[in-house]
Write the structure tokens for this entry.
Amino acid sequence: MIRHIVALLILALAALPGRAQVNAEQVTAIGRNVLSLDDYMLAIHYFNLAINAKDYRAEPYFLRALAKMKLDDFSGAERDCSTAIDRNKYMTEAYKLRGYVRQQLGRDSLAIADFEYGLTQNPKDRDFLFYKAISELNLKRYEAADSTLGSLIAANPKYYDAITARAQLRVERGDTVGALEDIDRSLAVSKTQEYPYILRAQIYSAREDWPQAIEALDEAVRLDPSRPDFYINRAFFKYKNDDYTGAMADYNETLHIDPYNSAALFNRGLLRFEVMELAQAAEDFSKVLDLDAGNFHARYNRALVYLTAQEYAKARPDLNAILKAYPRFYPAYYAMAQLLQGLGDERGAIRSMMKGDEIVRNYVKNPEKNPLDKPTIAGVANSKGHTADEEVSEEELIHRFNQLVTSEVDSQEVLAANDKYKGRVQDRETSLQPEPYFHLSMLPPKESLKAVSNYFRELGEFNSHNYIEETIYLVEDDSSMSEGEIQRAFDMVDKYTRVISTSRPKAANYIARGVSYTMLKNYESALADFNKALELMPDYTLALMGKGYASAMLMRTDKDVLPTSVSATFAQAAKVNPLLLYAWFNLGNLHYDQNDYAGAVEYYDKALELNRELGAAYYNRGLAKMQQGLRDEAFADFSKAGELGIIRGYRVMKQLR
């Protein structure tokens, strides 16, 4: 055992920055494990170390490209793929990834060249065929895309992404009947896709079949209730179907998810204006203007709201601002005339009305010499799918000032959503994932609405006695660290390696380095340090919590780590300190990970016996009960979790309904 620990420490030391020699293979292996845990910034840091040590190896460049792609750094990913290919021209995965990121960069011709090279190596590779078809579709090479997709579907009749892509192709070619057939065929294979429902809604909305369009978006919302654009578009369909209450509810839900969604605020403002909720409408338009002071659609509509409410003093600054920026925007002169008349200035009202009439007459006589001003909304689309800044007729322009906007769904993004490379955690939250394990960190917990402060006696005593200079926290947030936080963690490893090598053995120093390794997701080295601390101080709960967490994480990538050993570690911590609710909670998570849902519920129950305010335990217990078919009990837990600050509790209830 001791020999194994020493070997692990030697490997860990070799991975540290600033050392004379870096074990590039070991660092790459750690980085690959970190990448599998979706911590892309930290993974890139490890791959940088490997590249600095041995820059002739292709693998670290390819893996770094994959991490960069996950962070939407497509240009950086393309460069790293090219470097990997320079070092190993037969690395077909690098061609696949480079083609994919070139596709995201709009370089579809170059992407096709990469995919075609891959097909020379493996003519039946469905990923290469699928990506090639998408690039052909992006380039509007419809016959080529149809041929590629036809071959792909013939060889893979259950490949629903390809069937959905062909549905998109048929929509673009105007064959909505064929598109609906492909949508039905795709959903017959898998009903858990969102995009076929989006396409179906698009087709029915073009036909102005609003009930069918709503029904299609209902399914998309059910599959992913966290997408604001789904609610915005469904609200528009409900509005067209004369369901004002339903439309308002969807705008409210959009703003619950994304409080700064200007399209939802603008639309809700228009809807409130239409039903004469004037104060609320003005409030919504004001919020839009807080986000974008140059949004003259919102400013103009707010002025109209104030005019309707006869609040002329409030309307005047808005109209003045519009006329200053757009002196040939004639509707503002008519609105100003109404304002002046309301103030009793009949002459001023007549002058403003005549000015508007003059602008219209001059435009009719010579449109090129006397063009009208066209205030626009940048970055949104109207119900017909036009971007706001393109050329439109004057009648259409004025109509848009009083029209709900919708949100376009990027077909390329959605077509790629279920493929080999997309489907990232940060883009597509999996609502049914449990709240994570509690673990030790030198970074304080992120601010949240949760009711419980993460504290236990031994942790407080450790920090109050100043055994180390830093403070150790108990956290459950496992999101990516910033570049500065990553560097700090590496610095801590360096620091405590020096301390350990130059002073008598102390459990606190091994705990500090173990926590630093944990932050860097180097769980093998962290486990070695926590074991060393326990040799010096058996049954020390701080070291047991650190060891249990490192073992649980290592178990996800190392089959030699047995669940029973992890369970024994957390159980020992709970035995030493029966009030340590976080050990019981982590035991619940461990059993949940092993699909032992009854066992998970038992341990979440024990955690809640110690603290009824632990929202994470209610949420996870709810998930475990859902897995057992106890729907009503699960919903009660989700509701309580939401009440205690775990907002996902409310969202998962909506999704499961």
